[in-house]
């Protein structure tokens, strides 16, 4: 999306110069790079295998898969749908601030002097077209996040370089202030609780060995991490199902377990970032509910799990930001409730910035709840 104009202008310059060698090198470089990427992706995604000197499987064309995935509206609906102008009016100023203003001024100056220009810089034109094509093509995809426009930083800086010398002093002060604010917003508080919350879940839900107390009754077990030289008096498997709602997906590498793991405590994680409230309620209703009374008495770093029909023990955790009203997911007439096990602040979800600004203390946390049965 961003490289297409640069490549076309490169072809135009080479054609004007009648450099057939240059055209051949450009085409050969593109073809070889494409082949290398396809091979690397096919190996990485394990769609191709090399066994006894023979190749089997199918090639992975990541770029094509990307287009096919983003062409399906139902796929994008799971991540969130935005209007076509979101990148232009929201993402662009949020990411680049004063640089976006400078780029618009550069575009206006270019339009006013178009007919009288005889010294067009191919570099500036290519950079401007690169930024414009990326913005336009990405705006055609209904799921839009500011980070998708990060590649625009280079073409925007290049196409506005002449304006940098004449920009007033206050522009650079505004530039520094903007970057300081963005650093705090995106670097320190935006979705900041995801890693700590995932760490908490990992420390209490993915464990090789457990020591458990079965005296809690009602088919419950309260377990904690055991030293490697301590074995449980009975074989016990505890599964924690984690539902992440309205938040960045927890990085799965922090919850990984060995292949064919026999760890006594294991995790399963489900991404519900853009799932409708009713669907989330349905998933929670069908999950295993521990006793609310016992959950309130159990230490946060312990695992309170309930025995299932299959014989293993299970519990359900819900991870969601406090910027959302918990009653959306746990209505008053629900057959289940929640007990908070962990929270981290500051955690700001920019999708709910209105609620955050109204109640900056209560609505800037990421919480981990245990789903429980209030009658248990």
Automatic annotation (TrEMBL):
One Pfam family of this chain: Glyco_transf_22
Enzyme Commission code(s) on record: 2.4.1.-
InterPro entries from the UniProt entry: GPI_mannosylTrfase
Molecular-function GO term, any one: alpha-1,2-mannosyltransferase activity
Keywords assigned: Endoplasmic reticulum, Glycosyltransferase, GPI-anchor biosynthesis, Membrane, Transferase, Transmembrane, Transmembrane helix
Pathway noted in the entry: Glycolipid biosynthesis; glycosylphosphatidylinositol-anchor biosynthesis
Superkingdom of this protein's organism: Eukaryota
Compartments where found: Endoplasmic reticulum membrane
Any one GO biological process: GPI anchor biosynthetic process
Membrane topology: Multi-pass membrane protein
Gene Ontology cellular-component terms listed: endoplasmic reticulum membrane
Segments passing through the bilayer: 27-45, 88-108, 170-189
PANTHER family: GLYCOSYLTRANSFERASE (PTHR22760), GPI MANNOSYLTRANSFERASE 4 (PTHR22760:SF3)
Protein family per UniProt: Belongs to the glycosyltransferase 22 family. PIGZ subfamily.
Protein name: Mannosyltransferase
Higher taxonomy: Eukaryota, Fungi, Fungi incertae sedis, Zoopagomycota, Kickxellomycotina
Gene it is expressed from: SMP3
């Amino acid at each position: 999306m961003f490289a297409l104009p640069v490549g076309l202008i490169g072809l135009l310059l080479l054609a004007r110069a009648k450099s057939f060698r240059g055209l051949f090198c450009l085409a050969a470089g593109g073809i070889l790079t494409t082949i290398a990427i396809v091979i690397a992706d096919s190996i990485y995604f394990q769609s191709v295998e090399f066994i006894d000197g023979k190749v089997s499987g199918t090639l992975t064309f990541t770029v094509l898969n990307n287009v096919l995935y983003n062409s399906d509206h139902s796929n994008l609906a799971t991540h969130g749908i935005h209007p076509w102008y979101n990148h232009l009016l929201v993402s662009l100023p949020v990411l680049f601030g004063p640089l976006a203003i400078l780029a618009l001024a550069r575009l206006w100056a270019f339009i006013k002097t178009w007919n009288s220009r005889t010294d067009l810089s191919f570099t500036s034109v290519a950079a401007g077209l690169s930024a414009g094509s990326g913005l336009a093509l990405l705006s055609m995809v209904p799921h839009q996040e500011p980070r998708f426009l990060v590649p625009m930083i280079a073409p925007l800086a290049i196409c506005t370089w002449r304006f940098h010398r004449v920009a007033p002093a206050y522009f650079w002060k505004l530039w520094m202030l903007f970057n300081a604010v963005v650093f705090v917003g995106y670097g320190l508080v935006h979705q900041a609780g995801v890693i700590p919350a995932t760490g908490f879940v990992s420390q209490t839900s993915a464990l090789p060995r457990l020591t458990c107390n079965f005296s809690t009754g009602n088919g419950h077990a309260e377990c904690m991490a055991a030293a490697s030289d301590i074995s449980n008096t009975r074989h016990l498997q505890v599964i924690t199902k984690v539902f992440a709602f309205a938040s960045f997906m927890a990085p799965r590498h922090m919850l990984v377990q060995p292949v064919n793991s026999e760890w006594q405590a294991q995790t399963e994680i489900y991404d519900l970032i853009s799932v409708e409230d009713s669907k989330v309620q349905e998933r929670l209703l069908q999950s295993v509910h521990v006793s609310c009374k016992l959950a309130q008495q159990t230490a946060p770093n312990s695992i309170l799990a309930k025995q299932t029909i299959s014989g293993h023990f299970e519990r359900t955790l819900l991870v969601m930001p406090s910027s959302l009203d918990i009653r959306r997911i746990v209505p008053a007439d629900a057959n289940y409730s929640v007990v908070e096990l962990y929270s981290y602040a500051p955690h700001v979800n920019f999708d709910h910035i209105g609620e955050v600004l109204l109640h900056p203390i209560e609505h800037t946390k990421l919480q981990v709840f245990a789903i429980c049965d209030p009658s248990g």
